[in-house]
Design brief:
single chain, alpha+beta, Knr4/Smi1-like_dom, two-stranded antiparallel ribbon, 7 helices, SMI1/KNR4-like, about 35% helix, six-stranded antiparallel beta sheet
Length: about 270
């Protein structure tokens, strides 16, 4: 699960290289290979210049459905954040930060300062999707986390993305989706109306689904498909559940429970 997203790209590139290599080999080797014309050696009475047919050009699949990707075309202005949304997000963060400062100060230090409205608006433009109000509230509290190692993670490995990471991850996913050219991948592997909000360092993560503007929380697996079955409906609710797990020590989503490492950092442990 925690393998690099780069593997998906490597596989795609490797496939193209293999195909091109085969085409090249068939074209220049001659002999009795399929796809090339073979001629016997020329003789003085029947001079002949070897001639080889050109293999049919290979073409990559092309999407025939709308990927939803509108990179660089997002709204320049942010939608207003309701006061109730801000209060709820901040209340959840207050609980999380209080526990981290008392028990895992190393992880507490990984929380980045708030993003500016200008940075959030820029990320929205680059991503090409309207940011849900709760995401704006999250970024106004913390512009993601620093690093992956001891950085704060929603259980078990989901590190909240910064404005820069949101935009760059959206670009990567859309580039791979479009270059892959498979219609079936649109919406099942990724969609341009998804906003990445957390990454696990291995190519998977969490997103908010803006296809209908609801901001439904889901997770993606770069080697499989997206899912909405194992997460609460909102990012805020996930943070609230995380706060409860920290305060009680009880397992949260997926059965993971919080532990503090020797480095005084938060980790999530799956009971054996």
């Amino acid at each position: 699960m925690r393998k690099g997203w780069g593997r998906a790209v490597v596989i795609a590139v490797a496939s193209v290289v293999i195909v091109l290599g085969l085409v090249f080999a068939v074209t220049v080797r001659g002999g009795r290979d399929k796809g090339a014309q073979w001629y016997p050696a020329a003789t003085p009475t029947t001079p002949r210049t070897p001639s080889y047919s050109t293999a049919a050009p290979t073409t990559r699949p092309t999407l025939t459905v709308d990927s939803g990707c509108r990179l660089g075309q997002g709204p320049a202005a942010l939608d207003p954040v309701p006061a109730a949304t801000t209060r709820r997000v901040n209340a959840a963060w207050d609980r999380v930060e209080r526990w981290l400062k008392a028990n895992a100060p190393t992880t507490a230090a990984s929380l980045r300062p708030p993003a500016t409205l200008a940075k959030i608006a820029q990320a929205q433009r680059e991503t090409g999707v309207v940011f849900p109000a709760e995401l704006v509230a999250f970024l106004l509290r913390h512009d993601g986390v620093s690093g992956i190692g001891d950085g704060f993670a929603l259980p078990p490995f989901e590190h909240l993305a910064s404005t820069e990471t949101i935009a760059s991850q959206a670009k990567v996913m859309c580039d791979v989706l479009i270059s892959g050219g498979w219609d079936d991948s649109v919406g099942s592997w990724w969609h341009g109306r998804f906003v990445p909000v957390a990454v696990d360092g291995g190519g998977d993560g969490l997103f908010l689904d803006q296809r209908t503007g609801t901001g439904r929380l889901g997770d993606w697996n770069h080697e499989g498909s997206v899912s909405f079955d194992h997460r609460p409906a909102t990012l805020t609710e996930l943070l609230e559940r995380t706060a409860s797990a920290l305060e009680t020590g009880e397992p949260t989503d997926g059965g993971y429970r919080p532990v503090v490492t020797g480095n005084r950092a938060l980790d999530w442990e799956f009971p054996r």
